[in-house]
Amino acid sequence: MSGEQSHPTDCSEVLDRLYEYLDREMPDGDCAKFQEHIDECSPCLEKYGLEQSVKKLVKRCCGHDEVPADLRAKVLGRIDSIRGGEPPAAE
After folding, report:
1. What is the separation of C-alpha 43 from the centre of its chain, rounded to a whole number of angstroms?
2. Chain Cα centroid distance, residue 40
3. CB under 8 Å to 4, separation ≥6 — which residues?
4. CB-neighbour burial class of residue 25 (10 A; exposed 0-12, middle 13-18, buried 19+)
5. What is the pLDDT tens value at each position of the chain, 91 positions in all?
6. Contact, 68 vs 75, CB < 8 A?
7. Where do the Putative zinc-finger domain residues begin and end (predicted)?
8. Closest CA to 35 of 27, 91, 71
Protein backbone atom coordinates (compact mmCIF):
# COMPACT_ATOMS: atom_id res chain seq x y z
CA MET A 1 0.00 0.00 0.00
CA SER A 2 1.38 3.31 -0.87
CA GLY A 3 -0.35 6.64 -1.03
CA GLU A 4 -0.01 9.18 -3.78
CA GLN A 5 3.06 10.69 -2.19
CA SER A 6 6.09 9.54 -0.25
CA HIS A 7 5.65 9.41 3.54
CA PRO A 8 8.33 9.35 6.25
CA THR A 9 6.44 6.44 7.84
CA ASP A 10 6.10 3.31 5.73
CA CYS A 11 2.58 1.94 5.14
CA SER A 12 3.62 -1.54 6.29
CA GLU A 13 4.77 -0.11 9.64
CA VAL A 14 1.47 1.73 10.06
CA LEU A 15 -0.58 -1.37 9.28
CA ASP A 16 1.59 -3.62 11.49
CA ARG A 17 1.06 -1.32 14.46
CA LEU A 18 -2.51 -0.22 13.71
CA TYR A 19 -4.10 -1.85 16.76
CA GLU A 20 -1.41 -0.40 19.00
CA TYR A 21 -2.47 2.99 17.63
CA LEU A 22 -6.22 2.27 17.88
CA ASP A 23 -5.85 1.02 21.47
CA ARG A 24 -3.88 4.15 22.43
CA GLU A 25 -0.92 2.02 23.52
CA MET A 26 1.57 3.83 21.32
CA PRO A 27 4.04 6.45 22.63
CA ASP A 28 2.91 10.03 21.91
CA GLY A 29 5.74 10.74 19.44
CA ASP A 30 4.88 7.67 17.36
CA CYS A 31 1.18 8.48 17.65
CA ALA A 32 1.64 11.88 16.02
CA LYS A 33 3.74 10.35 13.25
CA PHE A 34 1.10 7.70 12.58
CA GLN A 35 -1.76 10.22 12.63
CA GLU A 36 0.10 12.36 10.09
CA HIS A 37 0.60 9.33 7.84
CA ILE A 38 -3.04 8.24 8.11
CA ASP A 39 -4.21 11.78 7.33
CA GLU A 40 -2.13 11.85 4.14
CA CYS A 41 -2.41 8.25 2.89
CA SER A 42 -5.86 7.27 1.64
CA PRO A 43 -5.26 3.46 1.58
CA CYS A 44 -4.08 3.53 5.20
CA LEU A 45 -6.94 5.86 6.15
CA GLU A 46 -9.39 3.39 4.63
CA LYS A 47 -7.86 0.45 6.54
CA TYR A 48 -7.81 2.52 9.74
CA GLY A 49 -11.49 3.37 9.31
CA LEU A 50 -12.40 -0.27 8.72
CA GLU A 51 -10.48 -1.52 11.76
CA GLN A 52 -11.90 1.28 13.91
CA SER A 53 -15.43 0.30 12.85
CA VAL A 54 -14.81 -3.37 13.66
CA LYS A 55 -13.42 -2.43 17.06
CA LYS A 56 -16.50 -0.28 17.83
CA LEU A 57 -18.84 -3.08 16.70
CA VAL A 58 -17.12 -5.64 18.92
CA LYS A 59 -17.24 -3.26 21.87
CA ARG A 60 -20.94 -2.56 21.32
CA CYS A 61 -21.85 -6.24 20.95
CA CYS A 62 -19.50 -7.80 23.48
CA GLY A 63 -18.46 -5.03 25.84
CA HIS A 64 -21.25 -5.49 28.37
CA ASP A 65 -20.46 -8.98 29.60
CA GLU A 66 -19.28 -9.06 33.20
CA VAL A 67 -16.18 -11.10 33.92
CA PRO A 68 -16.67 -13.45 36.89
CA ALA A 69 -14.69 -12.19 39.90
CA ASP A 70 -12.95 -15.54 40.47
CA LEU A 71 -11.78 -15.69 36.83
CA ARG A 72 -10.49 -12.13 37.01
CA ALA A 73 -8.60 -12.89 40.25
CA LYS A 74 -7.11 -16.07 38.74
CA VAL A 75 -5.92 -14.26 35.60
CA LEU A 76 -4.44 -11.36 37.57
CA GLY A 77 -2.73 -13.85 39.91
CA ARG A 78 -1.15 -15.64 36.94
CA ILE A 79 0.04 -12.35 35.50
CA ASP A 80 1.64 -11.42 38.83
CA SER A 81 3.28 -14.86 39.08
CA ILE A 82 4.74 -14.62 35.58
CA ARG A 83 5.97 -11.08 36.19
CA GLY A 84 7.60 -12.36 39.39
CA GLY A 85 9.58 -14.89 37.39
CA GLU A 86 7.58 -17.99 38.27
CA PRO A 87 6.94 -20.40 35.40
CA PRO A 88 3.30 -20.74 34.35
CA ALA A 89 1.49 -23.51 36.23
CA ALA A 90 0.50 -26.56 34.17
CA GLU A 91 -3.16 -27.51 34.37
Report:
1. 19
2. 21
3. 42
4. exposed
5. 444 456 667 899 899 999 999 998 998 888 999 999 999 999 999 999 999 999 888 888 876 778 788 998 999 899 888 888 877 666 5
6. no
7. 11-44
8. 27
